[in-house]
Write a structure and sequence with these properties.
It catalyses: N(2)-acetyl-L-ornithine + L-glutamate = N-acetyl-L-glutamate + L-ornithine; L-glutamate + acetyl-CoA = N-acetyl-L-glutamate + CoA + H(+). It contains eleven helices and 15 strands. It is α+β, with helices and mostly antiparallel strands. Strands 1, 2, 3, 4, 5, 6, 7, 8 and 9 form a nine-stranded mixed β-sheet that branches. The radius of gyration is 22 Å and the shape is globular.
């Protein structure tokens, strides 16, 4: 498996486009994107566990349950959440418009929205955007870049990745993009994520692979503790790589899962590192827990601790906040067995051994906490399980961004 250039157009048979439709008045950024598969693709999705679900989530659940999709339409600026029956009808109308423009069934069109909650979509603008995008679709790298830019809200940069691997003697490609910066505390996936592959795989195994991958990637990310109404991760597999269809949990399935995990891990880390106002990515590695669930609970408790996040921002080796977050997590462990090491490209420093402070150098610790990526290595010495979670520091800018988000 190797990383290659590109995003959602990297795999065979996919075209895309991103443009400005004008959803939010007075803005100049791109705000709509479209992805199209030359052939109908097996599809799967994971969605927010928030009881308040946006209209696009409800529509997409119907499409992914049916199992086949051929296009995705994405808009930013308006989330189409908490918009009642009118919101659902607008999601369905968006799919209908795209189906007519692309000469495919509207039942194979997925839709996704992100932005401010409580506003209905300006359907005249959406209609013009769909028509414009359908005539711009291309398979080149620049089009993938345009689409990755068009789905952003408060993100500071596009997030996309592509990988090649070998499955069944054929070269199989995965191309993906996502967006997410605030309201990130997934209980399934991220804000919006789109994964396109030319692999041939059955619907039930695609579902299983996606859900398994989500648990160790997007479900291990938190920026601010808020689970969005619009969280959606979609994967489409059009089979154009020509590999024998994956219908059993064999070597080919393992290769598929490995590539999907690599894609989702990269995207999850990109989201965490680009949290609203963030100045550094904070990674927490919990090792030697008694079971996987304990390791996951401990890791996520640490990255969601606001006090720990503030300490990371201040380059303060305040290890007490880490141990405290572990203690209230609900996971069972022996505090007197815990070792904590902080690491970065500047080196490593042990802060805690057997549950108590070491005689560490504060200046050296501050230096290690200074780079863009900071890692906490937490050893609970109670078993063989491990888990990794990703978050970010908590800065002044987070409050500034969210204090005037609607404007």
């Amino acid at each position: 498996m190797k990383q290659i250039e590109g995003g959602v157009t990297a795999a065979k048979g996919y075209t895309t486009a991103g443009t400005r439709a004008g959803i939010k008045k007075g803005k100049t950024n791109k705000d709509m994107a479209m992805i199209f598969s030359e052939k109908p693709a097996v599809t799967a999705g994971t969605f927010t566990k928030n009881l308040v679900k946006a209209a696009p989530v409800l529509w997409d659940k119907k499409v992914t349950d049916a199992g086949v999709a051929q296009a995705v339409v994405i808009n930013t600026g308006i989330a189409n959440a908490c918009t009642g029956q009118a919101g659902y009808e607008n999601a369905a109308e968006t799919a209908k418009l795209a189906g007519e423009a692309l000469n495919i069934s509207s039942d194979t069109v997925l839709v996704a929205s992100t932005g401010v909650i409580g506003f209905t979509l300006p359907m005249d603008v959406i209609a013009d955007g769909v028509k414009k995008l359908s005539g711009m679709l291309k398979s080149d790298v620049q089009s993938a870049q345009d689409a990755a830019e068009a789905i952003l809200t408060t993100d500071t940069h596009p997030k996309q990745i592509a990988y090649e691997t070998t499955i069944g003697g054929k070269t199989v490609t995965f191309g993906a993009m996502c967006k997410g910066s605030g309201m990130i505390h997934p209980n399934m996936g991220t804000m919006l994520g789109f994964i396109m592959t030319d692999a041939a795989i059955s619907k039930n195994l695609l579902d299983k692979a996606l859900k398994g991958s989500i648990e160790d990637t997007f479900n291990m990310v938190s920026v601010d503790g808020d689970t969005s109404t619009n969280d959606t991760v979609l994967v489409m597999a059009n089979g154009m790589a020509g590999n024998p269809e994956i219908t059993e949990e064999n070597e080919d399935y393992e290769a598929f899962k490995e590539a999907l995990l690599a894609v989702n891990t990269y995207l999850a880390k990109q989201i965490a590192g680009d949290g609203e106002g963030a100045s550094r990515l904070f990674e927490v590695q919990v090792k030697h827990a008694k079971d996987k669930q304990t390791a996951k609970v401990l890791a996520k408790s640490i990255i969601t601790s606001n006090l720990t996040k503030c300490a990371i921002f201040g380059k303060d080796a305040n290890w007490g906040r880490i141990l405290c977050a572990m203690g209230y997590s609900g996971a069972q462990f022996d505090p007197l067995k815990v070792d904590i090491v902080m690491a970065s490209e500047k080196g490593e420093i042990a802060l805690v051994g057997n549950g108590v402070a070491t005689a560490f150098d504060e200046e050296k610790a501050a230096e290690i906490l200074s780079p863009d990526v900071v890692i906490a290595k937490v050893d609970v010495r109670d078993g063989d399980a491990e888990a990794t979670a990703w978050g970010c520091d908590l800065t002044y800018d987070y409050v500034k961004i969210n204090a005037d988000y609607r404007s």
